[in-house]
Amino acid sequence: MAVARKPAPTAGRQTIIISFAGFNRAWAAWIGDRLTRHGHEVVFQRWDLLPGTSIENALEDLMLADGRILVVLSDWYFQLGPRTYLDWNHALRTVVAENSDRFAAVSITAEALPSAAAVFRPAELWGIGAEEAERRLLRRLGIQPTGVKASDESRSGPRFPDDDPLVWGGVPRRNIRFTGRETLLSDIYHQFQRAPRGAAVCTLFGLSGVGKTQLAAEYVYRFRSEYDMVWWVSADQRGTLRQRLAELAPALDLATGPEYGERLRAVHDALRRGEPHSHWLLVLDGADDPQLVADLVPTGPGHVLITSQNLAWGEHNSELMEVPVYTREESVAFVRRRARRLDPAEADRLAEALGDLPLLLDQTAGWLSDSVMSVDEYVELLDSGSDVEVGLKVAADFPMTFQTAWSILLNRLRETVPESVDLLRLCVFFAPGSIPIGWVRRLPTRELPESLTGLVNDPLRWTEASNKLVQYSVVRRETHESAADDSEILHMHRMVHQTVRDSVPEANREEFSRVVRSALAKADPGQPDDSRQWQRYAELVKHLRSASVLESTDPDVQQLVLNCLAYMTNSGEHGAGLELVGRALTAWRITLGDDHPRVRDLVNQQLSLLLAAGDDAEAARIGRESMARLDAENDPQDLEVLRMADGIAAALRGLGQYEEALTLSDQVLNGYRDLFGDRDPRTLNAMNNRAVSLRILGRYEEALRLDRQTLDGRREVLGPRHRFTMLSEFNYAWTLRLLGRYDEAVSVQERSVQANRRVLGRDHPQTLIAEHNLTMCQYRAGDRLRAKTDMGGTLERLERVLGDGHPWTLIAAANYACAEREHGDLDRARFIGESVVRRYRESLGPAHPYAIGTSVNHALMLRAAGERRDATRLTEECLDAMTAAVGADHPWTLGIALNLAVARNLSDDHEAAEQLSSSTALRAAAVLGPHHPLVLSCRVAHASDLRGLRRQREADKEEGEALEALAATLGSQHVHTVSARSRTHPHWDFEPLAS
Fold first, then answer.
1. Cα–Cα distance between 748 and 717 in angstroms, integer?
2. Contact by Cβ (8 Å): 554, 517
3. Half-sphere exposure of 665 (CA within 13 A, CB side)
């Protein structure tokens, strides 16, 4: 960014912009005060280099205002961002060196700074007294002193930062790793400035371990130059508070007798009058019981800062200020200061696992810093519920362990409102975070244990218990717009949850978990296929593990598990679904046995998830094993047999065993039709799956008719917004495209994409593959540039959502490589195409049609790169392999034959080319019809081969008929028509199909 060069300020009154890190605010305040006293205008600009902002731009922004820029240099100034010293050196040489007349600096640190910081020519203020510091400051800015000295006794301004307040006691040492909280620190300061005399009391409240004490300590250090007295008191016990307040008397030089009460009265009187010091700050740390200590809080011209978990301070003349967990940016910055071996991604994962709670981040990062354990290993350990407290190293900045703090709090809850402990224990058998505790209150009395009946059924006791938990910041209340009016939601931090859960006596665990399981089962809407219910299922799924639902033999709870698995299949949560179904199978086989109907239901859910996740081999193995047991005891028309056969057929399609898959699809469809008729959802699913088998076998017209019937049936039975209905639209459009009916395909698929986005969301796997199909429809219809751009974006999202090895991602990657080749980016086409071929060979084997077909695409890339001999050899190999895999008359085989005929033509082997193109055109017409684009491409290639044999009349006739048909079918300006008219050699791209 170019910045208009402004002239250096002249002598006389100047405007000086002071740029400083928040950590060094005390220095900025003192410098500003001294400059103001010498008659100059000061503007404070806290330096806050946000992620994604370049240092150069930030420095240039400082220059937008008139005036000299004075930078307060410290290691903190250069740590914000964070950026490397190399980045800083480049920025300083680029911006500051070229505008040296605008910049000046003072250095307040003995730490090494970036070498290019020398361009500031900073005045050194570190380690010297106030008078000398002021003299150096003025000299650096070229300001003539006015006679006002820093040693003047006036206390209307801030104190020199290296001078402690006259009275200073009990303040914990400064946390050199303190991170972020800039807005909160500013809010505390301004709250005190706005408060009327005698009412400047601010309470920082929040969870234990959230950093209230650290925030209070940083406030003290950052603003200490504005106070004559700072006194820090631990206020968890009344006796301790009284003792520490009494100790202020001698520190203030108050004339009192030795009596305890006399000293307390003298201190309160001195603070109230502001004598001997009116600028005082009292910090009451850990004051969780206002009733116990509120009468000891002094009044007067000074400020009182309280840390507490108790919202009741709001009733005691105090302003409340919540301290939340770190933002993710703050967490990452803090962890990287605590454990320098962790990179930003690892720090982010650790922060996610620990819920951004400062105390746990400090403990764990300190331990990981000295450990060989990776973050991923630690997160796995944490997720397993193991005792991760053992071996944790706690920094002196956090002297109390998390567990100890919570033991104290729980004891206090037991003493005040015992029911609150029962409610708290009930909460921890939900998952941490948002807890729909109101669901428990919907349970009938017969499903509640006697110990909880009174609490749940008595609104007054329930309210008192929940209020106490909120008051002590154990939980906080949440309001969700989507929640029912009677659905009370509490929020509990993850580590609070774990600590409390570990403290629940073994004798009570089953009692509490059974209540929560019943509440979850009652909250099940029973419609996992309805996308409108997915928000509820997402809420249910998160609580399954905490409530130990897999251990239950209650049929309603077991149905809840099955419904949640169906939801996870439908919503795209395949990885989590596979993990859940694996645990469920292990548990239920132990309690129910392998042949129990519920276990078979689980196996079917496992099959669905494996297929959705693309693991066809494992799905086929599990399906065949289960089918072997079913065949021995069930009729072929049995529902369980049909459902299992349907899953096996899908797996076989993925493995390339298409004919066997079609046979099973026929068996399943006939079975469902006999049992339920054509309009049952199960029959419609079977129709859809048979159409998939037909499509992948190249029988496109048959597949299209069945796709249309399925789409009409699903619209009628399921409705237009159902996921399966939208899937049928996708399949119908895909088949239209394979038949060369591109404009129709675009029209259908555009509507389908819009519906998928509305119902499922933009990042649902079905939406992504629908968007990819739309780009392919547009590409084939001739809108190639836009389609290629959109295709690349969709591929990136598929890789992010599903991974780069998922079948749908590979489909998109294979097509995108072809588009890149046609647009001339051969290097990128080669890179992507080779990766796809390698993955198909590794996962499906070299003889799978997809491995063969994508190798054909690679051969086209080789041809475009001028490697014609290798391209021809590879195409010949692929033709033989595809013929063996799917037969000589499959469209895939015919497409490869077209490519080989063109390769022979380019090699001047016109006779062999003509024989192949002629026979391919005839066979393609028999399979696809005379006007299919592949057939017409074969005829264009045949015309070229005829010309090569000097059979001009035949060539002209063949070419003329092909061009006329292309113009009639696709349009005279379609890319295929234009290409054929210009006698560009045609080609065929292999496209993997969703199976």
1. 20
2. yes
3. 28
